[in-house]
Amino acid sequence: MPTVRDVRAKAGEEPITMLTAYDAPTAAIVDEAGVDIILVGDSLGNTSMGYETTLPVTVDDMARHTGAVARATEDALIVADMPFLSIGVDESASLENAGRMLKEEDAHAVKLECGPHTVELTEKLVQLGIPVMAHLGLTPQHVNQYGGYPRQGTDREAAERILELAEAHEKAGAFSLVLEHVPSNLAAEVTDAIDIPTIGIGAGPDCDGQVLVVDDAVGLSEWTPSFSKQFGNVRAEMESAIDDYVSAVTSGAFPAEEHAHEEADLDDLY
Length: 270
Ligand code: KIV
Fold this sequence. Notes:
Layout: H1 4-10, E1 16-20, H2 24-32, E2 37-40, H3 44-47, H4 59-72, E3 77-81, H5 91-103, E4 109-113, H6 119-128, E5 132-137, H7 143-146, H8 156-172, E6 176-180, H9 184-193, E7 198-201, E8 209-212, H10 214-218, H11 234-251
Parallel strand pairs: 1-2, 1-8, 2-3, 3-4, 4-5, 5-6, 6-7, 7-8
Helix pairs in contact: 2-4, 6-8, 8-9
């Protein structure tokens, strides 16, 4: 079984790879490709549930998708994202919601979108045996405060706040840190300042690892952020396959003889 220790040990060697997955077939492909960490991100709200933001995603949604990913994964470390308001409102609810991902759905760790309010919670979760991946920089659950998804940590004060929070979460016991949409020189400084691995998305090349939303990476998303890269064009493949299917059905070419069978006994039924 992969452990958070393996992830910590990897930092400083070759870069850590992390991708999101939300369902069993995608998780199996990602896992077989040797990706180190599968994040069941609350980006599931955008990629798979048709929401404009991640805010409507529930603990039940995350649990169901985490279970699907875990059933199809053999080697990767599975991290379940904690959705909006599932943590931070009430301590015991936060602990139970996070614990459910490990106890019922076989995740190995949880990810928290962090701020000053998650330092103590991180410490408590870790004490209880729930490994925590912290997430700083652009935290999409704050979309209503940001008024969109702007770069974070772009001035000295904001950059220092991110650095301080990174140190505080490391001290609280987080095993790794996602840095999203921050200047690469800030990400490099944070990576130097803390011992736990940093995993960047839109944070430049100097993090200990990289993460992308799988739909963006394979070219399934309709829109991708500027810091992402499409490594394939799954959308075009699907469009072409579905067009071919529609043509085959409407022209009568599908199903052909090899796709159907007859039972002799059933002739002359009427
Ligand atoms: O929800 C998500 O997919 C994430 C990653 C982009 C880090 O938080």
